[in-house]
Write a structure and sequence with these properties.
about 280 residues, homodimer, 13 strands, 6-stranded mixed sheet, 5-stranded parallel sheet
Chain lengths: ~280, ~280
């Protein structure tokens, strides 16, 4: 990798991830241009150079990236599926939209890969949020001061297994397991809503602040493009997991982005939750 | 099957299914004794002969079944997982509880099979709710007046596929798919809560009363004991599916219990939803 990477075009949806990426670029002195997707991107992104585009204004986005001298793009943040009939594409958008719509019927993954291919075809390198955030992915083993007990790891490993299997079906990235029972599986509602739902289940099914049990597992879909859509946790994830009575949170080491690692550790330690990175199984070379 | 089956011991949890079974026994002149599980069984069941027991009073339940001359039992209705530490077992309960707790850690299916084995060991035949309800399972093809379009069937078949795969993992029985996208997967929250969640997703992801799309699919877990835990729909299911903007509901023919078939058809026709039974694949003899 070059010591001075070129200007990054950050295509920003909602949530905290684009903000974390922008701050990281700033800290590293890397030039940044933010494409704020209208209706999704957070207003905190306004402090960096950028412009707002509708999500089907692909010609406008490509022109702006070129004008700003971007050499790479990073797609990050949440974007809800549009009602394709209501999109207002520009000329370039209209030419690629049919292919995007066709991909969308095959699931989130196909849709994402199709969108990436549009940028790649224009010569942009695609960088993953995890590449840019550097070391801020989940390390193997215990993060923070609380180590999971063997029983707790059994719940976490089952949650990761269910999340992986659900991912194979392009359903989602997360699951909650408590005492061996699958309490919830994440689909389009997202992790936060799933955790809130667990907090509303009968008290006998789950843990509590006084007696924590169960785990949230987040795993990437096997077919997921890790450059764009790697699972993410932040302090809010830890807080909602705590409110659901869970004992901890885990993911696959190197395959879960930590938004503000120090704050995650502080929150988990304070609320009494473990955060665990399951080592990737060794694969033959 | 004997023309005059013996007295049925109905072990009744919550929901409408035990009530439907009791009414069916009454209509057929079959003697019935209802074991109302404390905290779960609906008070509408009080009009039939029966008694209330805590769910760990297994000795008391077996004694009552014997005293009343029951020859068969049917377990029906919903029971949330207990906090085993808080159960108050009687003597017999205390002797079988360790095995039940061990089974419970392996999932709902293992728990259910273990409980059934306790009744079978005492010489009771176990009858499925669908056996007793006779023809009130989903027939193949269209039920009611609305036939699904080809596109709609694609969503339904994907929902059934996801439900079956989720069932293999002992997660749950139901899923909602709209335009090829998995909107929700059911775990411990149940079908009603899942449908309410879909109704709360962004409007662009789902249908509406004016433009219905998407389907609820309910399929039995492959490892599920169909005698006890076959999937069920009722008018409330249809109403909640309608509120979620769905175009229809479906299951595997013969593998979905209809609670009050006529009312389901009337509700679906009135709200504009199809109800579809997917034929079981032919299997080699």
């Amino acid at each position: 990798m070059s010591a001075t990477p070129g200007t990054l075009g950050l295509i920003a949806g909602g949530g905290a991830l684009p903000h974390a990426i922008a701050r990281r670029c700033e800290a590293e002195g890397r030039a940044l241009f933010v494409v704020r997707l209208d209706g999704f991107a957070d207003h905190h992104l306004d402090r960096w150079p950028g412009a707002t585009f509708g999500m089907a204004e692909i010609g406008g986005i490509l022109k702006a990236l070129k004008r700003e001298g971007c050499t790479a793009v990073c797609l990050a943040g949440t974007v809800s599926r549009p009602d394709f009939k209501r999109l207002k594409p520009d000329l370039k958008g209209a030419s690629v939209l049919p292919g995007i719509i066709a991909a969308a019927t095959k699931g989130d993954d196909a849709l994402l890969r199709k969108i990436l291919s549009v940028f790649e075809a224009e010569g942009y390198a695609v960088e993953g949020a995890d590449d840019i955030l550097g070391g801020d992915t989940l390390p193997a083993g215990t993060l923070g001061t609380i180590t999971p007990l063997t029983d707790q790891l059994a719940d976490l490993r089952k949650a990761l297994h269910v999340a992986e299997k659900a991912g194979e079906l392009d359903i989602g990235q997360g699951a909650v397991v408590c005492d061996g029972l699958v309490l919830a599986v994440e689909a389009q509602e997202g992790t936060d809503a799933m955790l809130s739902r667990v907090a509303g289940l009968p008290a006998d099914l789950r843990g509590s602040a006084a007696s924590r049990k169960g785990a949230l597992g987040k795993a990437p879909k096997p077919i997921q493009d890790l450059r764009v859509d790697m699972p993410v946790i932040g302090t809010r994830t830890v807080e909602l997991a705590a409110a659901a009575g869970l004992a901890g949170i885990g993911g696959v080491a190197g395959r879960l982005i930590l938004i503000d690692r120090d704050a995650i550790v502080e929150t988990a330690d304070r609320l009494g939750l473990y955060v665990w990175g399951e080592p990737l199984p060794e694969t033959a070379p």
